[in-house]
Specification:
Chains A, B: Keywords: DNA-binding, Plasmid, Transcription, Transcription regulation. Two copies of one chain form a homodimer. Chain A is 44% helix and 19% strand. Chain A is of the alpha+beta class and 252 residues long. Chain A folds into two domains: 69 residues, Arc Repressor Mutant, subunit A (Orthogonal Bundle), CATH 1.10.10; 170 residues, GAF domain (Beta-Lactamase), CATH 3.30.450.40. In chain A, helix 1 crosses helix 2, helix 1 crosses helix 3 and helix 5 packs across helix 9. Chains A and B meet through helix 1, helix 3, helix 4, helix 5 and strand 3 of A and helix 1, helix 3, helix 4, helix 5 and strand 3 of B. Chain A binds a DNA duplex (30 and 30 nucleotides) through helix 1 and helix 3.
Chain lengths: 252, 252
DNA sequence: TTATTTTGTGCGATATATGAACAAATGTCA
DNA sequence: TGACATTTGTTCATATATCGCACAAAATAA
């Protein structure tokens, strides 16, 4: 791609949108400039553009995103057949298991939820389509990283912030790579409170007919009710069933 | 705002993202140009920028959005306290009612789902945060339109495509305005299969402490199980309970 | 008050959009 | 099949718009 095939004003604007998040619902021009490391004048123009288009509100001091911004992500969710395809199967799975079921894909070092069927809340985190978790310590993340060539998996781990979320969290690259090998061989991943104390989950890959892993699905359960040791016998058959039901639908 | 406070390259890029959707997961440059009514050269630059940043894939012919695009909508969902605040209450509500419960806000002529707790699927449509429905024929839509000044409500209806989705759908502006008046007076809206045959729903507004309606919550149920006439006695008390529980939390 | 931070603006340097021209691919019809 | 017409993608020159700096004004803090 040539230099001039890149619209930097657009790229800068997207960076400004991403500056909003978590504890940053209201951003002043200066704050947004600091977060994005862009010039204040540039950030100001981007924010005013967002406001002019109705993607943001401006009270003269702070900018906040409006729900219109959801149109952008929704363009993906409705444009990609995967979420709509998975949803009914997740509903069914979730009901049979009596636990939350989710589907996600890989984006860099994170997994991104693309569909979810929740039974009551077990996690402290509020997960919705678009939510992100670090791949290295999530059951679906391990399933999505497992099929990658080792060099690529290592590169992703190297870019990941391998944080010790709980005493159980595996943070050693070699250990994780070995775990990926096991996941590849056995076809599932189990997480025992590595992300959050009290939460276990089990995931399997969803492959298309070429055998490429395109997504992962999982079931999460409170460790208090379902010890990690029981996750496999309780939920793996259900997950395999869903996996098998989805296979013929993924012709691509 | 001055002319030069507007970054048109950014605005054009956002328009290109929105061109993706529904049956448009794969767009060629020419298709995207037609949909956005922008110059082919301009669209090409925007799409290549998206690809360069990892928001889109390019196979040399077609562009498709990647899950990274969800970061943009997620910036809103995680930045705005409302979805996270509502979610546990929706879970509770959904469980008590044994039906799906949702929350939405208004964006132009549409309602946008910002949180949802689903029991088994009753609708043919797959609703997730970010999903949109026309406001005029949705229970939450009526609740969100009701508090607006009549002139504003009429303006929105005028911009809406008042489609006869089912034989029950109200499409007459005057009739809808009269219904808004009733909703304002009685504090709830009921939809009896106006969006889709077989689906009833009931909604109430969520106000902040200044009395401004900031969102709506609803319960949807299959008409076969719960006739519209029973929606009120069955679910209105539960909705009012949730509404009351939320009131002190919306200090803003 | 002064000091500090934040926001708004003018301007030259630089980057982008435009529309036409061309090349390549695709489709159409005899 | 081959010749022609269309559509699509790409490139280029130039008119135009944006960027980022420097400074001024305003707001905020000390």
């Amino acid at each position: 791609m040539r230099e001039t095939d890149f619209v930097s004003g657009f790229a800068r604007g997207l960076k400004v949108i991403e500056a909003f998040g978590e504890t940053r619902q209201r951003l002043s021009i200066a704050e947004a400039a600091k977060l994005t490391e862009l010039d204040r004048a540039t950030v100001r123009r981007s924010l005013l553009t967002l406001a002019e288009l109705g993607y943001a509100d401006y009270d003269g001091k702070f900018f906040t995103l409006t729900p219109k911004i959801l149109r952008l992500g929704h363009a993906y969710l409705s444009a990609t057949p995967l979420p709509a395809l998975l949803q009914p199967h997740l509903d069914h799975l979730s009901e049979k298991a009596g636990q939350s079921a989710s589907a996600s894909v890989l984006d860099g070092t994170d997994i991104v939820y693309i569909a979810r069927a929740s039974q009551r809340r077990v996690m402290s985190i509020n997960l919705t389509p678009g939510s992100r978790l670090p791949a290295y310590c999530a059951s679906m993340g391990r399933v999505l990283l497992a099929p990658l060539p080792e060099s690529e998996a290592r590169a992703i781990l190297a870019r990941s912030e391998l944080k010790q979320n709980t005493p159980n969290t595996k943070t050693d690259s070699d250990e994780l790579i070995a775990e990926f090998r096991r996941v590849r061989a056995e076809g599932y991943a189990i997480i025992d409170q590595e992300l959050e104390i009290g939460l276990c989950s089990i995931a399997v890959p969803i492959d298309n007919d070429r055998g490429e892993t395109v997504a992962a699905i999982n079931i999460g359960a409170p460790a208090a009710l379902v010890p990690a040791a029981e996750m496999k016998e309780r939920y793996l058959p259900l997950l395999k069933e869903t996996q098998a039901a989805l296979r013929p639908l993924l012709r691509r």
